[in-house]
Design brief:
Blueprint: H1 3-25, H2 32-61, H3 63-79, H4 83-100
Helix pairs in contact: 1-2, 2-3, 3-4
Length: about 100
């Protein structure tokens, strides 16, 4: 991995911690507009950044397995089947199986 991808992963991890973990630990009183932004726009932007910085890197290595795994994950997320963990797990397993064989 190059430095850009490592930096993107670090920034996205920090953003996820700030958005998901910190509000659970400490009871913040944010304005309503900021709360709406943090609950809708920010998670969407984090997901799009994952696509741009991580998936596009994998597309350069193996386009078929990457697009298949992304499609499986997106479909499961859209249909809300199994939650985020199951969708991610199915995408990872399908990518592994398609690249291993």
């Amino acid at each position: 991995m190059n430095n850009g991808i490592i930096t993107a992963i670090a920034v996205l991890s920090l953003t996820s911690l700030l958005v998901r973990v910190l509000p659970v630990i400490y009871d913040f009183q944010f304005p309503l507009g900021l709360m709406r932004w943090m609950e809708t726009i920010l998670p969407s932007s984090v997901f799009l950044n994952f696509i741009i910085y991580i998936v596009l890197q994998e597309v350069q290595i193996a386009i078929g397995p990457t697009l298949t795994a992304l499609a499986i994950t997106a479909i499961l997320a859209y249909l809300n089947l199994g939650g985020l963990f199951v969708g991610m797990l199915c995408g990872c397993v399908s990518y592994y199986l398609l690249t291993a064989w």
